[in-house]
Amino acid sequence: MCCRCGKIYGMTPAGKHSSREECHYHLGRLCYTAKGLELTQVTVVDPSLQVVYDTFVKPDEEVIDYNTRFSGAVEDDLKDTKTSIRDVQATLLNLFSADTVLIGHSFEHSLYALKVIHTSVVDTTVMFPHQLDLPHKRSFKSLVADYLWRIIQDDGKSLLVHDKYRDPKSDLSKS
Q1: Predicted local distance difference test score (pLDDT) of residue 53
Q2: All domains of the chain, ordered by start, with CATH?
Q3: Is the pTM of the predicted complex or chain greater than 0.70?
Q4: What gap in Å lies between CA 65 and CA 175, rounded to an integer?
Q5: What sequence ranges are listed for the domain Exonuclease (predicted)?
Q6: Residue 89, Cβ neighbours under 10 Å: how many?
Q7: Above pLDDT 90, what percent of the chain?
Q8: 143/63 Cα distance (integer angstroms)
Q9: pLDDT in tens, 62-73
Q10: 39 has which bridge partners?
Q11: What does the pLDDT look like over 34-54, one tens digit per residue?
């Protein structure tokens, strides 16, 4: 069953998808991976917005949908990737301490995808709430437009101001 829309799809006895059915709820996209949501890319910037860590991550299971509309990731990005989520976690443990403040947008998704628990987090969806309040959240695109006066996405394609400023929901695949 698709974890996004609940649609039932076919599987082989080995756990692979028997066919590539389109998900009618997600703009022709398929399901994420055979395991569900998995991480495909991690980018970390410092307070000066300089990239200090950027890597693609090889999912544990077969990718069914790269969710490119949100993630920006495509099959070629992961073709030669050897970095596992465990490698990423080890690197992050060397970059951050328990006192490091992490800042992100809908950051619970990123931390969930990383399988990391951290107590010092600033989430822009909390700092800049939606006018209709919860459960609504402002999109990263609208925050960038309103506060930085930049357009980062148009028609589902990234027009990234800088490739590393993509919507953090892209951490899921996926992502």
Answers
A1: 93
A2: 1-31 (no CATH), 38-173 (3.30.420.10)
A3: no
A4: 8
A5: 31-171
A6: 14
A7: 19
A8: 30
A9: 887 787 776 778
A10: 172
A11: 777 788 889 898 888 889 999
Residue partners of 33: CB distance under 8 A and separation at least 6: 59, 60, 61, 62, 63, 64, 173, 174
CA distances from 35 to 76, 92, 172 (A): 20, 23, 12
In total, the chain counts a number of residues equal to 175
Question: Could you give the 3-state DSSP secondary structure of residue 45?
Answer: strand
- 84-97 pLDDT, tens digit per residue, is 999 999 999 999 99
The residue assigned the tokens 């892209």 is 170
